[in-house]
Design brief:
Helix content is 25%, strand content 27%. The protein has helices at residues 11-29, 49-57, 122-135, 151-161, 207-216; strands at 2-6, 8-9, 33-37, 62-64, 99-102, 105-111, 141-147, 167-171, 181-182, 188-190, 195-198, 229-238, 245-255.
Length: 256
Amino acid sequence: MRILMIGDIIGQPGRRGIRGILPGLRQDLGIDLVIANGENTAGGFGITLETAEELLESGVDILTSGNHIWDQKEIIPHMDEGLPLIRPANYPDAPGRGYLVQDGVMVLNLMGRVFMPTLDCPFRTASALLTEAAEEHSPRVIIVDFHAEATSEKQGMGWYLDGKVSAVLGTHTHVGTVDARILPKGTAYLTDVGMTGPVNSVIGSDTNAVLERFLTGLPQRLSVASGPVIMNSALLEIDENTGRAVAIERIDRMVD
């Protein structure tokens, strides 16, 4: 099975990049399932039903999220209505769901706690959900989107889940890392997939506003940058019989 994980999609430019890149890439690489982090698709902050549907129509199968999932309140009623959108499972008593099973794959969303809002422990949450999934004979192929800031916490999750899931893929920083590998017990790992958004930006935002904030310390309203778009993603090859990763490869594409 070949699965593509796409990094955080930023606003209208990111959605345009998905429309321009994903359909052809999916066909060329024989991709079976596409997962994308969609929590920044609505003007850079949150996700709406309209932006979610646009991504699904462009070839995304499952949308994950993170700390910005609540920024657009209009999405909340739709999170329990069958939309293939999940939020971090370690949010306590929150709307929506933290994982779903689709096309023979379980996708689990978790959020870190280092330099992030305080939530339930992502490690213990993962353990409990995986135990529950095993009892219910869920698929062997399990992909984890770990939305976290600290590289140490992400690496820790990779080692903690090695051999228990097919892949642990980090999101949130919008900066892709170069440490794609398969851990000793068969779990594919990448600290951060990166983003899908304007390449001439500061993690997707207009550079002038960001620099003004850094230089003056004063609040600045951030907006999504414009120009050429890069799509950062990771391509996984998974053995469906064992759930072990066979290969992981960064796939980065640009569109004007």
